[in-house]
Amino acid sequence: MDVALFDYDLPADRIGQAPAEPRDASRLCVLDRGRGVWEDARFSDLPRWLRAGDCFVVNESQVIPARLLGTLDDDSGRPAELLMLRPLDDGRWEALVRPGKRCGVGARVTLAGGAAHATVVEHRAHGARAVRVAAPWPVDELLERHGLPPLPPYIDRHHVPRAEDRERYQTVYATARGSVAAPTAGLHFTPALLQTLASAGVELHRLILHVGPATFRPLRAAQVEAHRLEGEITDVPAATADAVNRARAEGRRVVAVGTTTTRALEWATDESGRVRARRGEADLFIRPGHRFRVIDALVTNFHLPRSTLLLLVCAFAGRELVLRAYAHAVAAGYRFYSYGDAMLIL
After folding, report:
1. Cα distances (angstroms) measured from residue 171 to each of 33, 53, 62, 321
2. Are 58 and 203 in the same domain?
3. Which distant-in-sequence residues (6+ apart) come within 8 Å of 313 by Cβ?
4. Cα dihedral 61, 143, 82, 91 in deg (nearest 10)
5. Do the beta carbons of residue 209 and residue 264 sit within 8 Å?
6. Phi-psi region for residue 333, left (φ > 0), alpha (ψ -120 to 50) or beta?
7. At what angle do helices 319-331 and 308-317 cross, to 10 degrees?
8. Looking at the domain assignment, is residue 156 inside a domain?
9. 64 CB-side CA count, 13 A
10. CATH number (domain holding residue 95)
11. Quick check: 28 and 43 in contact, CB under 8 A?
């Protein structure tokens, strides 16, 4: 498949620059795959399309304040930036470092106003670096003290996030630290909305997929099949696997909140269609032609052109239908991407 098949036109003013207030005031495009139609609603209307017994699965990964700003410790003193991805062995961290061309092995970045520094000690795959951090605090505390929310670059203020971004670029049910980008479909939920769903008999279950560069890395090859998805740390617990299997055996719907939840469930499912408790690095690349074995419905945002996320949605609902719905959303003034509006695909 040609990657260009997953392109679409999006005016810059359709990119969401701030979250809806309150969270569930965002718009919701409800897409019916079977009938090939959609309707416009608000996210707070979501309970209208759900019913008692639905098995609702969310990704409870928590976004860390992963961006550290500093300066190169050389004659240039140029600004530098680290996106801290995950801890490695022996106290090292994997990070994306900018400016990459000046940050080979041995380069040092001064952080936290001079209180800390990071030294590049190894080149890793996909342009990442292994760094060793020297600071008066553990790295997790350094991030809490001096890190910034890792807003995507298409948000105009991503270099200077607002204080409220620490809360709003985070789901209300996040508990497990580890993501460097939000599982954005979950950003629309409020505690009150979750309680409404629970009171209506909707089951809520959790898993973890820590969102890393694999999720937001663009497709650079001309052909879809040439893309390889990096693994991301994933944990599908036994309780969630059992709940999903029970729902399927009893003919109840499994509703995935987000593409990361979908990918985790499909990765943990065997050839017989049974979800297994599984921990590891999910590297499943879902694209058109994939046979879904678990989910019946999907809550998701509007995704970037030529992205693995858009390909997953097209695999679930059909490329032509999805792109027609996207064209409608553009014309109707929906907001796109991380701080944008949502879709419910049935």
Report:
1. 27, 23, 8, 29
2. yes
3. 259, 298, 300, 303, 322, 343, 345
4. -90
5. yes
6. left
7. 110
8. no
9. 24
10. 2.40.10.240
11. yes
**Dmax (CA) of the chain:** 67
Cα–Cα distance, 279 to 239 (Å, whole number): 13
Confidence (pTM) = 0.96
CATH number at residue 239: 3.40.1780.10
Judge if 75 and 216 occupy the same domain. Answer: no
Q: Residue 311 has which token pair?
A: 């390909």
Domain count, the chain: 2
Q: Which domain, by its residues, includes 11?
A: 3-63+166-345
Same domain, 57 and 71: no
CA distance 289 to 268: 18
Q: Mapping DSSP to helix (H, G, I), strand (E, B) and coil, where does residue 195 land?
A: helix
Compute the residue count for the chain: 346
244 and 191 inside one domain? yes
Q: What is the pLDDT along the chain (346 residues), one digit of tens a residue?
A: 999 999 999 999 999 999 999 999 999 999 999 999 999 999 999 999 999 999 999 999 999 999 999 999 988 889 999 999 999 988 999 999 999 888 999 999 999 999 999 999 999 988 999 999 999 999 999 999 999 999 999 999 998 899 999 999 999 999 999 999 999 999 999 999 999 999 999 999 999 999 999 888 888 889 999 999 999 999 999 999 999 999 999 999 999 999 999 999 999 999 999 999 999 999 999 999 999 999 999 999 999 999 999 999 999 999 999 999 999 999 999 999 999 999 999 9
